[in-house]
Amino acid sequence: MKCQFEKLILICKQDEVHIDFSPEVNYFWGQISAGKSSIVRLIDYCLGGQLERTPAISQELLSVELKAIMADNKVSFQREAQNSNKVQVTWVNVDGDRTNLLVPITSSRRGNPIYGEDIYTLSDLILYFFGVSPFKVHISRRIGAERLATLSFRDILWYCYLKQEYLDSSFFRLERPPHMYKSRYAFMFIIGFYSEKLSELEKKLSELRNEFYNKSEEFEKIKNFLEPFGYTNVYEIDNEITDLNKQLVNIKSQLDILKSDYVIDTNFADELRVKILNIDKKIEEHELVCVDIENKLKEQDALLNELLISQDKIDRLEYAKNVLDDVPYAFCPACGKKIMNKKSDLICYLCNRKYDDEKVEISLDKEIIKRDVYNRIDELQESIQRLNESLSTQNKILKSYKIEKESVDNELDYAIKEYDSRYLNNSRILERNMAKHEEKIVNLNRIRKLPMAISKNEKHLQLLKIQENDLQKNIKYEKTILEEAKNRIMELEYKFLESLLRVEVPGINEEDIIIMNQNTWMPEVLPLRNESLKWNFLNAGSAGKKTLFNVCYALSIHYIAKEYDLNLPTFLIIDTPMKNIGEDVNREIFEAFYKYFYELAEGPLKGTQFIIIDKEYFPPDTRDVDVKSRYMTPDDDEHPPLIPYYRGP
User: Fold this and answer.
1) Residue 76's beta-bridge partner residues?
2) What is this structure's pTM?
């Protein structure tokens, strides 16, 4: 995985900072708070990592760009400073084709890929530059809870970027799930002990084991459910269903007989029903007569009222005539105008009409009308009285019929209830038994499927077991093909011990050996070959010893990767290899480490790009190594900090 960083460009508020990298060794050293570690953090930030927000970065940085060569691609990564979750990636391939893409750092992988068929994230795209396809690895080994995760470029980067904050601990995170599993697979992938075919086989084995686990649980549940009922096979259930069907036919027959007998036995109520119908007809007839009488009463009452009003009007008219007759009017009662003297006794001095015999005739007509009204009133009163008597008679007859109907209804209800109670009791018992049998038959038909499922499950589990054995054989065979990786692991063990000895790490002797624990893939030191005294990252002792242990391990992996052209990017960033180690107190270790480092850089690791961040500079003894060194201070203009114009905390 050829990878080389060419330039880092910082777009700041007041300036644009360019940092050119040597293809071999880049050495940034000097005082604290000068931005040395921020250089490599910004490289990591462009590759999808997190950025520590120092005051200078927070206040001044707008965006950052990293130019690099990855395999045959010239790539530019641009990312905004304000926690952008996407990176603008521009690359030119070997054919000169230029592509520009805004790439998310993380993705759920549920939508469409952003590029190609399986590229969803920035890590996927970087692996694509190196010609590697993302593949799944296990991050849990517990059966029934196995999980898969994509092995990404960020996982491989653990072996290429030794962060200062993790340098005195297990920076490979081999002790922390799920990073533990991914780090192991990253190591296996790098060393060549893991292939995509092996990954696919293990994925199938994981799915098969999960299926076997789930089917076994289902199988046990079915068996535990059937055991209390005593059903061990399908034939026993079928026999019981047959017996229940026979009993059900018998119950239905009894119910049919009971229903037919009920129809015959209930004829005794027909006479009462006919009698009730006749009474209902009579009640209806008399109710119609009552309604007719009530309507006539209403009409005659209205007519009587009108005649009484007319009688009253005639009486008032006669009274007014007697009072006003022969009254001498001085003024007109209509308009109030004074009346002139009479012209003649034969002419009305009010209306100027001549007197004649009409007045007498009117008086006679009034008497006749008055007598007619009185007679008519008497007749209507007599008619109303007769109608009321008739209505009273009809109501009495109607009431008697209703009493009779109620009596017959009660008689019918009592007779039917007495019979129905016996019928319903018998029919309900039969229907209840029939429902129980039908429900039991339905349940047995459902349960019948369970023994069949057990038999089918047993065969399926046997088949899964055979498939599991076949997959394990294929995995074993695939691992034998990768047997060469075991030789590389042995060489890594030897090279790691050599590097610890060359750097003069305390507590390491030539009689010691190092073994790679193939369960955890942790390198373990066996003092004097005594396994009971073995130690590793976690119990290396002092923080300075842990730092050297980690740095030497990383150098050893890059050594093996370069020798065998393995899947590891050809760069190594070490942020403060002398962390927790005093250059004055431990001068021998300081010098021994850098002598060994330059020896690797100009020899076996020639072509690997190194970026070193440290407190003090140790120059090489030879000019065969291209070293770009930069001394940095927080406030010296001759040796400015990362952002040259910034002066602050």
Assistant:
1) 67, 90
2) 0.59
